Amino acid sequence: MLTIDNLHARVEGKDILKGLSLSVAAGEVHAIMGPNGSGKSTLGHILAGRPGYEVTAGSVTFAGEDLLAMDTEERARAGVFLAFQYPVEIPGVSNMEFLKASVDAVREHRGEEPLDAVTFMKKAREACKVASLDQAFLKRGVNEGFSGGEKKRNELLQMLLLEPRLGILDETDSGLDIDALQVVAEGVNSLRGADRSFILVTHYQRLLNYIQPDKVHVLAGGRIVRSGDASLALHLEDKGYAWLEDEVA
Amino acid sequence: MGSSMHDTLAAAAAAAPGWLAPARDAARQAWAETPLPTRKTEQWKYTSIAPLEQDFGPGRPVELDAATVDALLPDIGALRLVFVNGHFAPALSSGELPEGLELVRFAEADDSQAARIREHLGSALPEAGHPFATLNGAALGDGLFLAIAPGASIREPLQLAWLTAGDGQAFTVTPRLLLLAGENSCLSVVEHFADAGGSAPSFSNAVTELLLAPGATVNHYRLNLEQGRALHIGGVHARLERDATLNGFCLGLGADLKRLDLVVTLAGPGAHAELDGIYLPRGDEHVDYHTCLEHAVPHCTSMETFRGVIGDRARAVFNGRIHIHPQAQKTRAELSNKNLLTSADAEVNSKPELEIYADDVQCAHGATVAQLDALSLHYLRSRGVSREEAQVMLSFGFVNEVLESARLEPLRDALRPLLARRFARDPSLMRHLA
Amino acid sequence: MSQEVIDERIGKEYAAGFVTDIESDTLPPGLDEDVIRFISAKKGEPEWLLEWRLEAYRGWLEMATPEWAHVHYPPIDYNAISYYSSPKSFEDKPKSLDEVDPELLEVYEKLGIPLHEQEMLAGVAVDAVFDSVSVATTFRSKLAEAGVIFCSISEAVHEYPELVKKYLGSVVPRRDNFYAALNSAVFTDGSFVYIPKGVRCPMELSTYFRINEANTGQFERTLIVADEGSHVSYLEGCTAPMRDENQLHAAVVELVALDDAEIKYSTVQNWYPGDTEGRGGIYNFVTKRGVAHTNAKISWTQVETGSAVTWKYPSCVLRGDNSVGEFYSVALTNNLQQADTGTKMIHLGRNTRSTIISKGISAGRSSNAYRGLVRMSPRAEGARNYTQCDSLLIGDACAAHTFPYIESRNPSAVVEHEATTSKVSDDQLYLCQQRGLDAEKAVSMIVNGFCKEVFRELPMEFAVEAGKLLEVSLEGSVG
Ligand SMILES: Nc1ncnc2c1ncn2[C@@H]1O[C@H](COP(=O)(O)OP(=O)(O)O)[C@@H](O)[C@H]1O
Ligand SMILES: [Mg+2]
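A: This is the predicted complex of the input protein with adenosine-5'-diphosphate.
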């Protein structure tokens, strides 16, 4: 599904990713952990195509295609979804308008008809239930005045509606209480399937209690310094990142 | 303004009731002594009145069919009065006068109404005069008098449509509205200016006076939807007594020349004014909003938000003055003006002003000129929305935020598609909006 | 604090208000072409400069006094002013400080401006302009080693005619405005600075201006040219004696920052502000402007506490790509002082940046206006401006105004303007008083905090002076 090979990337003249390689097969869930500032969000933005994030070397193949050659919206339509660590507020544009525009764009790309208003509303309501967001949030401006937890759940809502092939969740669990954490986990689990993969960026092992990862990676100093199975996360929880310092250097 | 101005004034005089003559003659005298503003006049620094340099004759009645009018005026479930080229068009008007609302044309006023009109007409205008308010007075033929009974809370909004329709020759129209809101009364008025087309240029010189008695609340909407050669120089002058509230909302599309002066005098303690506006010139259009909040007494508040999106080769001017008089302690006044330039040939001139003569006040203003937020654009695109559609959505969102403050829901619903259309040349780009 | 106490405190004496008794060579009042010829001849100027002055004068005759500023004063009779006053002892200009009239040196000492090089521990080179004539420029030899030219403009006309001819009027044209035209016609002296390519001026340069003679106008002209890649910091201080009549000060300052150069220009303006009833004081009508070429930077910092009427807009023309303009201002008015001051940032080049921080403090019955223009020209791709204007009101009889003009014709330029006006909050005062400070000290502290962003832009010696000046200017006006 996704193959990242020797990726080097730079933000505002600063080298952040320094030879990152990672392979995620269809249907797999990978967790990425690592100290603050190690480049986890940068990786997500590079995959999503954020302007200003410059790839200086390496390649990314998504479903057999050169992901880096695609525009931001083309990537989204091809099925790459990034749940932002810091979701953006867009006052004046309602959440509903935003969601409908996204869903229609993705459907159109797949050669599907746009949903009629009634069907869309129905789907949106159902997704709201799964994301445990009151329907009133559909009418409000995108993320406008939402609490931190509500913003994260709004990201989940979008993911549920867009049904991506690769979901990248950038610390979607940070700042959530245990109930909200379960909501996010259930949402992800409900989407899991043979044809869909996930990258979970997280600081906490606890999310992985609810979403069983196939692999766990440690990102430090712009590279994957250690990979393992779910037990690696437990080990990290226990020991922190200090014991990996040799690898980082 | 060409020589035919004389004919226009004469025609107006012929139509007007005799008791208006003294006021009109005084205005005419003042007009004769008023120098026309030039680009050197501070208040007209960025707006040229050169488009007025042609012969405008008097506006003549023109028959419009109902379908044309319905296309111009959204149905907001309101009592509707339609004027075409300044002439009342009963066939196009609809609805019943609710209890507590008194409404009469100057020409048909009875003695008591005439007395009240004479007493109040011009009382909300600035003492120093405004050249085009003076011209309106000088050309005054007919006008509309509206009085809300004390304590009356009128549920359905009142829609006043001032339409122009060309009939071959350039013409001028001089609408005038005088509204007296009685104590603790409440009303929503939508003034809707639009052009029904036709071959000739027109010049509307519309003046509205709003007099709010203590405790009155008026929601006033001023929609200036004329475009192209339908020129407009107009003013809204409001005076608020103790605890009165004015919620003003303006929407201006551009025209060859469009200039609005909105002057609100907070004359009684506890008065509160909110003034919001949107301007959206494009093509070669010009739009100029001059607002002024006169805080004349203590304990008043005002909040003002104007936003504009300026495209193509269009020009926008915003001048927002807050004037705190020496006695006006405990004033709170805020103003925000934000602009988006969407083309390399567009231009905006913004001038928020604070003029403060009292010390115990909290005043602030902010003005920005910028482009669409790059991160928001990215967020939309990362969800699969095309760049073009994302730009339309964000431009719309930028002004829709102001529209959301308009209290009249049917009006908001009616205006949303109009705003969206302004940004989306390709209709598919606005399919998710409004 | 009671009104009486306030009134009494406001009556604080102007500390720099002594008159010096020096015999001077003063032209009788009046202005015509002959007066200009006299000035030019007196200074032994070349023909081109006389012509330049006369051209300016002819332009001036056709111009009207600007009336748009928010200041009010009786019309000025330009024929009642004397356009030349030179201390007699300088008929033959001193060659060194030893030859300077000791009485004059004493004046500067009273002002706290040491002219003797041995006292110049601070390492600041000083040019002192007394009435219309430059008195002494210190540290010249040390500067000369670095190739820096720092002298009076009269000298520069003789010694560096090519530089003067090339740059004089290149930033502020002769007919730029009424006062600039007048200055161009009759300017008598001022400072000239040239920093050669790539040179970092080894010390702060400083000019002190003093108007002494009655009925004289002061029309100094300053020209600073920073050649490519050079750097200079320049300070200017101004004082004048207490007199009942108003005196006119119409200066022009031109700054040229060539590619990659940086000029920092700081002013502490403390001209006599007039008395508590508004009698006397300086009319300070000044045109200051700089042109910044590619990657150059011009930074204006001003602390304005003096003058009866101030009309002053130090501006930056950001001509070169990536050039930077800054304006940091504290303007304090008290009693019946009036100030209309601010800046213009004209963005012509790509990616030009400007910052405006303006702090206005109004006390007494004064009036204090910020007036600023930010213009983004069609070529100013990616240009940015940030403006913050705050006004503080002290007492209920003063006025504070903010008149920003924003003109943008480039869709990629960003302009952000914010302004606030309020009084010293009762809560702040209460807090300070509760911690044992008296009201006056508390206000002084709050005002200093209010101005901090500007003070930190000043060179160290000036920052201290500026803080004290505010304290003195405000004494008693708080309650
Ligand atoms: N927009 C940006 N501009 C400059 N530096 C950035 C930017 N975004 C991230 N960085 C820097 O890149 C590094 C990696 O950041 P990030 O990917 O957010 O780390 P993580 O998500 O692992 O905490 C940090 O040092 C951060 O300061
Ligand atoms: Mg991160």
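The helical segments of chain B are 5-15, 21-33, 66-72, 111-120, 131-138, 374-381, 387-403, 409-423. The radius of gyration of chain B is 21 Å.
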